[in-house]
């Protein structure tokens, strides 16, 4: 297994003999950065194999741009069309989705809700299982005032 270190903005800055702030601004297309500097930084980043660290950005910004989608089933044309619509809207607005499936099991639903919360999704769309009698397992989302939407067929 190859454990080659990921290239960071600090590596690019060192190579170009500029500050990491300059590299960050150039990679983020800041208007305060000269267009030639932007091109040089972006070209160097590509040559070095730089990948934007979405995880680090989401820690800094306290936002993941991810919506959790919890479905009670996945084998119906209705659910497929709902997922297609959700994906279209989230994609157009710069969000990703994580889809979880409960198979009509409350136990799986609870585990998926906890998993999505720990993945720090910015909101949750949920289609509840038939076994769900209360919403106690969604309390962490309520406490954080996260966007929640419950669907019914």
Would you mind describing this structure in some detail?
- 47% of the residues lie in helices and 14% in strands.
- It has 2 domains: 44 residues, Orthogonal Bundle (434 Repressor (Amino-terminal Domain)); 88 residues, Response regulator (Rossmann fold), CATH 3.40.50.
- The longest helix is centred in the middle third of the chain and has 16 residues.
- α7 links the parallel β3 and β4.
- The protein has 153 residues and is α/β, with parallel strands linked by helices.
- The model has no long low-confidence stretch (mean pLDDT 89).
- α1 packs across α2, α1 crosses α3 and α2 crosses α3.
- Strands 2-1-3-4 form a 4-stranded parallel sheet.
Could you provide a short overview of the structure?
With 153 residues, this protein is α/β, with parallel strands linked by helices.
How is the topology of this model organized?
Blueprint lengths: L8 H8 L3 H8 L7 H14 L5 H8 L4 E6 L5 H16 L3 E6 L4 H13 L4 E5 L11 H5 L3 E5 L2
Parallel strand pairs: 1-2, 1-3, 3-4
| Count of runs of 4 or more consecutive helical residues | 7
Q: State the distance separating the first and last CA atoms.
A: 46 Å
Biggest sheet: strand arrangement: 2-1-3-4
Sketch the topology as an H/E string, one letter per element: HHHHEHEHEHE
What is the CATH architecture term of the largest domain? 3-Layer(aba) Sandwich
**Which regions have little confidence, pLDDT < 50, spanning 5+ residues?**
none
Average the pLDDT over all residues and give the rounded result: 89
How is the main sheet built?
A: 4 strands, parallel
Superfamily at the CATH H level of the largest domain? Response regulator
- List the domain count as a whole number: 2
Overall shape: it is: elongated
Which class of secondary structure composition applies to the elements? alpha/beta
Radius of gyration: 20 Å
Q: How many beta-strand elements?
A: 4
Beta-strand residue fraction: 5-15%
CATH topology of the largest domain: Rossmann fold
The CATH top-level class label of the largest domain: Alpha Beta
Helix content: 40-55%
